[in-house]
Amino acid sequence: MPAPDDARAAGATLGAMSSPRAREAASGPGAQLAAPVFDTDERSFDRDVIERSHQVPVIVDFWAGWCAPCRMLAPVLERAVEARGGEVLLAKVDVDANPGLAARYGVRGIPAVKAFRDGGVVAEFTGAQPPAAVDAFLARVVPSRAERLAREGARTRDEAKLREALALDPRNREARVALARLVLERGELAEAAALLEEVAGDFVADGLRARVALLEAGGPDLSRLARAFELADRGAYRESLELLEAELAGESDRERRDLLRRVMVGIFAELGQGDPLATEFRRRLAALVS
Predict the structure, then answer these.
(1) Which residues on adjacent β-strands are paired with residue 126?
(2) Which of 287, 269, 268, 270 has the alpha carbon at shortest distance from 278?
(3) Is residue 93's pLDDT more than 50?
């Protein structure tokens, strides 16, 4: 991204012209994240963008003061974001002041616009775009009503919201898994199995399917298994995993051993890849099944 020295020297002045107004975040990078448009830099990027994108999509505009297309795109992008009333945020990154961020995200031409959701880039474009193209880009990035209902319903365990999300989008994975968990806790095994049937490639869903199979099979250890599942649902993961590990260690039937393993792997997925408890019990599980 070369720029003439004289243009680079004028960058601060031109940068001030990149918006049709003085941005609300003028007090510094990430200073007012309540504002839909704000500046960020290498020190605050992870907090401002990566962490924030787990709650709301964040669009990042990589720009420079000497870049004429950047100044063309900025007001279009800012107006489009502001029109969405908080459904999406816009972070501005001056590539001259933050070359590390430009390198980190492979920015080779500007303006470069990248959309972040759940900590990663999900869509991007390069170059100035007309308002219609910017609106279409944001429409792909902003969660649908079904996605918003599913996320909120899963977070608050709101069954009505989860069912509404599935009515709008029967294929919504998050709503299916969260609702299956709720009905499973009530002992409604058939509905839980039906909800999980169409969810493939998801370790949490597979662990819940294994729970259904174990509960349907019954047996003398059913009360101990039910206790392990109840502990997991309450967030007492260590106690739950210890009970499941003991059941697996004492089980000789290959099919039941596999079901117990799948339940434990599902809990690992819920805890997250880097969770210390998941790491500890993943090693212990590997020793048991080897």
Answers:
(1) 112
(2) 268
(3) yes
Q: Answer yes or no: are the C-beta atoms of 207 and 201 closer than 8 Å.
A: no
Do residues 161 and 149 lie in contact, with contact meaning Cβ atoms separated by under 8 Å?
yes
The pLDDT of residue 16 is above 70: no
Go through 169-208 and write b for each residue having 16 or more CB atoms within 10 A of its CB, e for each that does not: beebbbbbbbbbbbbbeeeeeeebbebbeebeebebbbbb
Q: What is the pLDDT of residues 215-267, one digit of tens each?
A: 998 877 788 899 999 999 999 999 999 999 999 999 899 999 999 999 999 99
CA 3 – CA 8 distance, rounded (Å): 6
> Which pLDDT does position 17 carry in this prediction?
37
Long-range contacts of 215-221 (CB under 8 A, 24+ apart): 215/187, 215/189, 216/189, 217/256, 221/247
pTM of the complete model = 0.65
pLDDT of 34 reads: 59
Q: Which residues are catalytic?
A: 67, 70
Strand partners, 94: 63
